[in-house]
Amino acid sequence: MNYVVEPMPVQSLPVAGEDARFPLRRIFCVGRNYADHVVEMGFVPEREAPFFFTKPIDAIVEDGATVPYPQLTENFHHEAELVIAIGKTGSNIAVEDALDHVFGYAVGNDLTRRDLQFALRDRSHPWDWSKAFDKSAVCGAVHRAVAGQPPKDARIQLLVNGEKRQDSPLAAMVWSVSEIIAALSTSVQIRPGDLVYTGTPSGVGPLLPGDVCTVTVTGLGAITTTIGQRE
To answer: What value does the mean pLDDT take over residues 176-195?
Structure first.
């Protein structure tokens, strides 16, 4: 096959403990899925239907990488997240069947241009541009799940230069993994290779050049990202 430009290479993540890699297709992200983060963003917590935004698949950054401080922001934030890796196609999935579609889980960091997000939001403009930029989706190795179950009694934590900023049980999510998958599948057909970032707890804050940011989820290990200079 001849192409007029070079086609995009397959994006993938390592699978923990294996030589094989997990090929990627799309990135979906859940907004406002921890009540304490909803409050710190200036909203009143309520159990409304989950909403989603997206990131480009080539925004993926693996563990240990350096991410340059991005353009169009002076308030660059971290957001620690559990990531779902989808392993089975489905549409209009019932909540009780949702875990059948999970391949595994990973540790993620949804990097955000916060000042741009607020400026767009205040003008009632879509704020995807504050989320969907180069190297904005940090993700660790995918850990195969047993019967699709997320890590039991797990906590998610984020440290910057060794100082703890975010710390929450995953059980504090407003929408569970099963509910997130079911809701997403009513809008799109989920397919193997899709990633779903499940939202962040309170404690989000700024990153500066030279900072080292580490996210951990019980049972899934840790990911570390160094923030570089603006390019």
So the answer is: 98
Residue 35 DSSP one-character state: H
Structural domain count, the chain: 1
Q: How far is CA 172 from CA 34, 62, 168, in A?
A: 6, 26, 7
Residue among 5, 48, 16, 40 at smallest CA distance from 140: 16
The residue type of 159 is L
Residue 124's SS3 state is coil
Tell me the residue range of the domain where 117 lies. 12-228
Tell me, yes or no, whether 200 lies in a domain.
Answer: yes
Q: Which tokens in the block code for residue 67? A: 């991410």
Do 36 and 44 form a contact (C-beta atoms < 8 A)?
A: no
38 pLDDT band (50/70/90 cuts)? Answer: low
* pLDDT value, residue 37: 79
> Would you say residue 97 lies in a domain?
yes
